[in-house]
């Protein structure tokens, strides 16, 4: 028998709502999973990608993750992982750093056998590379086999890649596909193979209302998948339906009915009533002790048929939504990230963008061609600053609105000089 924890989408380093405490929450959630693994004496922790939220984690994120993995290694529990789209770099991955320190195993086409189960890995694969993918998984002599990978897969409704294609083309018969990318858990069966998402360990978006957690997968003649929740920072969701002539006082009263101390408060407004200034409600919640407060008024404005999707306190969300509507290619999103949100010094942005465009066009003349608006019903929605997704990952879409994935197809991004020097320092 082999019993493992299947986790993923930890998004360490994500400073949600631009609040330092939320950045720490993501690391703490990962630490709780690891300590559960140690206490339960599982055979391994299997991570299905997006360990980090960004391909340029800070020193504190790198060292914090290092300390957690050292706890796991000290307990002789292996950490098996693949690379997700958020953290993907052109060459050396941060996961390689931890592997070089003996703290992780980066899964690949060769089997890594734990107990009586062989684990294989497939890093996030951009759509443009899937048709040419070689499924050259090596043979094994274990009793069971599992493929760990990252992406949005059918048979789930939001999938853009059919898991059955991988299973049919693979020379190895898998008992399970352990998936990351979608932030809500789920499982389905394709013939004899279980296909399952573990969900995220922290809420990366206001649309993720269900409790966070991970899967426990047991291989013992058959494959059994159970779910375990973890304690994370409280999110208080306040949905207000305003009647005629009701306004901000009604909304404040509804917020006051909840214990919001140290919580993230998400207020959604529908119905009729008077116009609401989101900031006035947010200030009320903050005065009551909330860590963060966000208000979304879903009502139609008389002069605009579009839904108000963000509060004035979150201009980054408005920008992310507009970028999503543009339907940029993965390469174009890479350029957008360099201009708006990367760590490239302002004085160097122009030269960096020029060099990057030349590289992209040299590799693929159509790299910057728009791919069309992102389908809001599917896809990893995490953006550079605020993650979300229909059932899962994403950028911060207050009130549950889906936004674009900051790294849609970001497996095509490359390291910059800063990335390379950082890796060199640690190696």
What characterizes the major β-sheet? 6 strands, mixed
CATH superfamily annotation of the largest domain? Metallo-dependent phosphatases
**Assembly type of the shown chains?**
single chain
Count of separate structural domains: 3
Regions with little confidence, pLDDT below 50 for 5+ residues: 301-310, 372-427
What is the top-level CATH class of the largest domain? Alpha Beta
**Helix run count:** 11
Kindly report the average pLDDT value.
82
Straight-line distance between termini: 37 Å
Gyration radius, rounded = 22 Å
Specify the structural class.
alpha/beta
CATH architecture of the largest domain: 4-Layer Sandwich
Helix content: 25-40%
Portion of residues in beta strands equals 15-25%
The side-by-side strand order for the widest beta sheet comes to: 4-3-2-1-13-14
The total count of strands amounts to: 19
What does this protein look like?
The chain is α/β, with parallel strands linked by helices and 427 residues long. The protein folds into three domains: 2-229, Metallo-dependent phosphatases (Purple Acid Phosphatase, chain A, domain 2), CATH 3.60.21.10; 235-290; 315-426, no CATH class. It has eleven helices and 19 strands. It has helices at residues 20-40, 59-74, 94-100, 127-130, 163-169, 248-256, 278-287, 315-326, 330-340, 349-363, 417-426, and strands at residues 2-7, 44-47, 79-81, 105-106, 112-114, 117-122, 144-150, 153-154, 161-162, 176-180, 186-190, 193-197, 213-220, 222-229, 235-242, 264-271, 292-297, 300-301, 304-307. It has a six-stranded mixed β-sheet. It has a six-stranded mixed β-sheet with strand order 5-6-7-10-12-11, with no helix packed on it. The chain is globular and about 70 Å long. The two termini are 37 Å apart.
């Amino acid at each position: 028998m082999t019993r493992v924890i299947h986790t993923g989408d930890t998004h360490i380093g994500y400073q949600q709502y631009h609040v330092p405490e939320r950045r720490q929450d993501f690391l703490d959630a990962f630490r709780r999973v690891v300590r559960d693994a140690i206490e339960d004496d599982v055979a391994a922790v299997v991570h299905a990608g997006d360990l980090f939220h960004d391909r340029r984690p800070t020193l504190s994120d790198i060292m914090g993750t290092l300390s957690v993995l050292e706890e796991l290694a000290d307990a002789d529990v292996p950490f098996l992982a693949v690379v997700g789209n958020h953290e993907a770099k052109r060459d050396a991955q941060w996961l390689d750093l931890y592997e070089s320190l003996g703290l992780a195993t980066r899964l690949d086409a060769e089997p890594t056998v734990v107990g009586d189960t062989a684990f294989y890995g497939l890093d996030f694969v951009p759509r443009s590379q899937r048709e040419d993918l070689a499924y050259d998984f090596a043979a094994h002599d274990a009793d069971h086999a599992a493929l760990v990978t990252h992406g949005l897969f059918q048979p789930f409704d939001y999938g853009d890649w059919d898991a059955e294609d991988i299973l049919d083309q693979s020379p190895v018969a898998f008992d399970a596909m352990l998936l990351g990318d979608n932030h809500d858990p789920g499982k389905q069966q394709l013939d004899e193979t279980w296909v399952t998402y573990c969900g995220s360990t922290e809420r990366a978006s206001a649309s993720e209302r269900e409790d966070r957690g991970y899967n426990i997968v047991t291989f013992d003649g058959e494959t059994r998948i159970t779910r375990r929740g973890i304690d994370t920072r409280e999110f208080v969701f306040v949905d207000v339906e305003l009647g005629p002539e009701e306004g901000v006082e009604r909304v404040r009263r509804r917020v006051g009915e909840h214990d919001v101390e140290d919580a993230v408060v998400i207020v959604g407004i529908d119905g009729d009533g008077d116009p609401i200034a989101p900031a006035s409600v947010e200030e009320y919640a903050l005065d009551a002790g909330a860590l963060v407060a966000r208000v979304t008024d879903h009502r139609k404005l008389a002069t605009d048929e579009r839904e108000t999707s963000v509060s004035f306190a979150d201009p980054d969300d408005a920008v992310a939504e507009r970028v999503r509507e543009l339907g940029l290619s993965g390469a174009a999103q890479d350029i957008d990230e360099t201009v708006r949100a990367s760590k490239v010094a302002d004085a160097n942005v122009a030269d960096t963008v020029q060099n990057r465009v030349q590289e992209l066009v040299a590799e693929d003349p159509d790299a910057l061609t728009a791919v069309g608006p992102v389908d809001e019903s599917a896809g990893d929605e995490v953006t550079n600053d605020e993650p979300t997704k229909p059932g899962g990952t994403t950028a911060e879409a207050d009130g549950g609105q889906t936004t674009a994935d900051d790294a849609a197809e970001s497996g095509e991004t490359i390291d910059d000089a800063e990335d390379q020097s950082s890796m060199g320092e640690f190696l």
